[in-house]
Specification:
mainly alpha
Length: about 450
């Protein structure tokens, strides 16, 4: 049974926005400012990140147009490379997404707990309870069907955009005067050269790239989109245009309101903006903003990741039961339930799991570059399709190559900064490859013994 086409252009555009805007924009600017050291490099990193994201968006727009299927992020790897590569990369994506849902739910619970719970109840037990309740609420909403969960997502995303615009308005309440002139310093104390600036930019782009990441999973919804070949490209472009505009503006506001030197070590940049507007009540407003962002992130991950698991079940990389769909609601019930359970279980080990998340950052860079590279293979295999109904990347192959080169550069930057994390990421990837081939070998032996 295949799902019905229910998602509109607006629905998918809001999904794109929520796949990208989570907690990152309230935290990563601090890291980027610290690595950049000077405002010029800080702004350049966010501008380059936005440009690279557009190159990627246009590339994935064509991929989604040429291959509009449910669980597309799994199937493009399977079709273009090998099912084992698709299995390993998507297992990493699913587990890291579940871990992110768990960790971010706890962060949201901490903020909400401080404004709704009395002091003696602000403990780990109650935070875990709020986090699990949040995940389960959206699990049950998703059980109602795609229409209910997508409409919920639309509301959460609109509210989130509105709240970010509210934070941006802090710039109208006065700017911070810089007391110290930012200076770029090298490790040796010598005058910086282009190599020093290049290394700093690479470190900045690690955080920036993952603040923009996530929109590639939009192609997981390809089989459920009305007029997919037209709507998928438009939704990715519209969604990312909103994201880039918000990111560039809010980062300008951070620098203007907080001051660049202070931004390098600020602990809660969004709280500073909120307090500038609302005074002492700013923290409560910030808590609401954070929790709405958490709710949107939880719901969109419960929408996206089970569809990759559905595709893996269809192709036999996971047991066929993962592709089972409720005939009445058209919900991928087993995949949704398993993903939810993984997230809930990880909540109890969230702090430990952060280490595993660090290892996956390197592989996510590789997966973004390699998934974008499937456009060259798909173009050859789908050359017979009517070109009028297929979106094509302008300036092909220049824009896909820029995107692939940028994420390859980020991967090398991660390796140069933390070789251990990169190597551990490769070990995890290799482990999933071993699991895939071992499972296939077991299935062959079982089928052979059944025949005999």
């Amino acid at each position: 049974m295949q799902p019905k086409k229910q998602l509109s252009l607006f629905d998918l555009s809001m999904i794109v926005v929520s796949l990208v805007i989570g907690m990152g924009i309230f935290r990563t600017p601090v890291n980027v400012a610290a690595k950049a050291q000077i405002p010029e490099l800080f702004y350049l990193a966010w501008f380059i990140g936005g440009f690279v994201a557009f190159c990627g968006a246009l590339t994935y727009a064509e991929i989604g147009s040429r291959y509009p299927v449910t669980g597309g992020y799994y199937k493009i790897f399977s079709a273009a490379y090998h099912p084992s590569i698709a299995f390993a990369i998507n297992c990493i994506v699913i587990i890291s997404s579940a871990a992110s849902v768990a960790a971010i739910s706890i962060i949201g619970a901490e903020y909400l707990g401080k404004i709704v719970l009395p002091a003696h109840m602000q403990t780990d037990i109650y935070r875990v309870a709020i986090a699990i309740t949040t995940i389960l609420v959206f699990y049950f909403i998703n059980l109602l069907g795609l229409k209910a969960s997508s409409k919920t997502q639309n509301i959460l995303t609109i509210v989130k955009i509105g709240l970010i615009l509210l934070l941006i308005s802090a710039v109208f309440f006065g700017s911070q005067t810089e007391t110290i002139m930012p200076v770029f310093k090298t490790h040796t104390g010598t005058r910086p050269g282009w190599t020093d600036y290049g290394k700093a930019l690479g470190l900045c782009l690690i955080a920036v790239s993952f603040s923009y990441a996530g929109y590639a999973q939009t192609i997981n919804f390809g089989g459920e989109v009305k007029e997919a070949k037209k709507v998928i490209p438009l939704s990715i472009i519209i969604g990312l245009s909103i994201i880039v505009a918000l990111y560039l503006i809010i980062n300008y506001v951070y620098v203007q309101v907080i001051g660049f030197e202070e931004l390098k070590s600020a602990e809660s940049i969004a709280a500073i903006l909120a307090s500038r507007i609302f005074g002492p009540a700013g923290f409560k407003i910030l808590s609401v903003i954070i929790f709405v962002s958490v709710m949107g992130y939880v719901n969109v991950n419960l929408l996206s990741n089970p569809r990759a698991m559905f595709a893996m079940g269809e192709e036999g990389a996971l047991p066929k039961i993962f592709s089972k769909m409720n005939q009445k609601t058209e919900v991928i019930t087993i995949s949704l339930t398993v993903f939810t359970l993984i997230a809930v279980v990880i909540i109890f080990y969230a702090k430990t799991f952060d280490k595993i998340l660090n290892y996956t950052i390197f592989l996510e860079s590789i997966s973004m570059a390699s998934s974008a590279a499937t456009i060259f293979i798909l173009r050859k295999r789908t050359a017979h399709l009517d070109q009028k109904s297929i979106y094509t990347v302008p300036l092909y192959p220049i824009l896909p190559i820029i995107f692939i080169a940028a994420y390859t550069f980020v991967a090398f930057s991660i390796y140069a900064d933390d070789p251990g994390a990169a190597l551990n990421g490769l070990f995890i990837f290799t482990g999933f490859l071993v699991i895939y081939f071992a499972t296939k070998l077991f299935q062959k032996k079982r089928n052979f013994s059944n025949k005999n």
